[in-house]
């Protein structure tokens, strides 16, 4: 399994994304005011803008180029707007759904928890982060994993409240969605 090992803050700065949006709460270097009066480069081309947006999507969802290309080809073959279908496929990944349900804070942690086999889909243990969840699937934390400190924190009254998107339902006081 290949994974992106780039420093998060450095990559966020290059793509113009806030590290807090990625779930990163560590310290970042001070903003540099190096060469403040310098001229900036001219307007980016259309290709440069599209490439930057593609790189942002790949970084946010934690997908590398080969897998992203496979998702794109699948979305291009299906009916409907290719961009919308592509984003819906990326949103339906099990690691992203676990993140959206609030079962893990950053997507990287969700990916690790899924690959360690902490989740079940319709009662079957799944350890593939790219597993595509369908409408009506039930995702929950395995019985063995519920005893861990990580998941006990999600059940108490001092648990962090997460706003779940409209297309997902999470049961209160249960590690299930």
Question: Would you mind describing this structure in some detail?
Answer:
The chain is mainly α. It has seven helices and three strands, in the order H-H-H-H-H-H-E-E-E-H. The chain has helices at residues 8-15, 46-61, 65-77, 82-91, 94-100, 107-115, 149-152; strands at 119-121, 124-126, 139-141. It has a three-stranded antiparallel β-sheet, with helices on one face. A hairpin with a 2-residue loop joins strand 1 and strand 2. The longest helix has 16 residues, at 46-61. It starts with 7 loop residues before the first helix and ends in a 25-residue tail after the last helix.
Number of strands: 3
Shape: globular
Order of helices and strands: HHHHHHEEEH
Structural class: mainly alpha
Strand fraction equals: 5-15%
Strand order of the largest sheet: 2-1-3
Topology, element by element:
Elements: H1 8-15, H2 46-61, H3 65-77, H4 82-91, H5 94-100, H6 107-115, E1 119-121, E2 124-126, E3 139-141, H7 149-152
Antiparallel strand pairs: 1-2, 1-3
Structure, briefly:
The chain is mainly alpha-helical.
Characteristic key phrases:
3 strands, three-stranded antiparallel β-sheet, globular, mainly alpha, 177 residues
């Amino acid at each position: 399994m290949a994974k992106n090992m780039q420093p998060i803050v450095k990559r966020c700065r290059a793509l113009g994304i806030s590290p807090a949006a990625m779930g990163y709460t560590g310290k970042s270097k001070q903003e540099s005011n190096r060469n403040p009066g310098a001229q900036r480069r001219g307007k980016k081309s259309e290709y440069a803008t599209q490439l930057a947006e593609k790189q942002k999507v790949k970084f946010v969802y934690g997908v590398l180029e080969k897998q992203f290309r496979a998702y794109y080809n699948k979305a291009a073959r299906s009916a409907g707007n290719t961009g919308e279908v592509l984003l819906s496929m990326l949103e339906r990944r099990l690691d992203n759904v676990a993140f959206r349900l609030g079962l893990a804070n950053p997507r990287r942690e969700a990916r690790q928890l899924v690959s360690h086999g902490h989740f079940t889909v319709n009662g079957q243990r799944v350890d593939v982060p790219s597993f595509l969840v369908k409408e009506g699937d039930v995702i929950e934390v395995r019985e063995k994993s519920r005893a861990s400190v990580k998941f006990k924190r999600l059940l108490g009254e001092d648990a962090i409240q997460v706003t779940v998107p409209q297309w997902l339902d999470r049961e209160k006081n249960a590690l299930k969605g």
